[in-house]
Amino acid sequence: MEKMKRAERMVAITQVLMLKPNVLTPLALFAEQFRTAKSTISEDLMAVKGSLQLSGHGHLETIPGAAGGVRYIPEISKGEATAVLNSLAERLNDKERILAGGFIYMTDLLFNPSILRPLGLIFAGAFRQKKPDVVVTIETKGIPLALVTAEALGVPMVVIRSGNKVTEGSSVSINYVSGSSRRIQTMSLSRRALEARQRVLIIDDFMKAGGTALGIKSLMEEFQADVVGIGILVEAQITSEPKLVEGYLSLLQLKELNPDSGKTTVVPVFL
């Protein structure tokens, strides 16, 4: 490789780090790749670190020692997070999204990477200090949201199934009461999916009464897991009934849903 100028090298270093978020990269690897001294790489990294802090797109963690290196921690600025949530709330307030049963159609948004990635960064920033070992969700619509959150945190994601799957092997199953339909349902998780006593972050797309979240917490108790947080994209607040779980974080609240008038009010609450 032809030796790069400093500006070119800094751009390349930034690209390498951002393509591998939460992964520790040794300085020696950069020195070898760009054919320059570690001291020069260290100076470049200080400049990259300052640039990231100014832009609000994350920060660098430096680990000293022979086994150390640098790690990129992705983040989202407060201004960008506010814009993302305001835009999403506006799109959800479209009367064409109203569904029977007090729900809003969100599938197209939940499978749009350009919308999901910022949401994952928002959740990751809110729960990073809780140091979760794994992100847990239940199939199906919450999977993309949980995946981008897990990626931003640099941890695995685990999916709870609505029933037993032969390909999952031995599973733990529990019955729970769905908060929205008040029906008894079953959720299960493979015994191999989660190690005992792991720190778990629960992520889901919608909460009405909280029955599903409560069921997930109960299932996590079977694995002796410690639930360190619950993140919900949209929380329904259209009744005065208390939720079945406490201590959750919602990004948006559904405050009004009137199918007759086509009136929907979704507002950001995490700003």
Characterize the structure shown:
This protein has 271 residues and is of the alpha/beta class. It has 2 domains: 6-74, Winged helix-like DNA-binding domain superfamily/Winged helix DNA-binding domain (Arc Repressor Mutant, subunit A), CATH 1.10.10; 78-268, Rossmann fold, CATH 3.40.50. The protein is built from 8 helices and 12 strands. A 6-stranded mixed β-sheet has the order 6-5-9-10-11-12, sandwiched between helices. The protein has a two-stranded antiparallel ribbon with strand order 1-2. It has a two-stranded antiparallel ribbon with strand order 3-4. Strand 5 (134-138), helix 7 and strand 6 form a beta-alpha-beta unit. Helix 4 crosses helix 6 (113-127). The longest helix has 18 residues, at 38-55. The chain is globular.
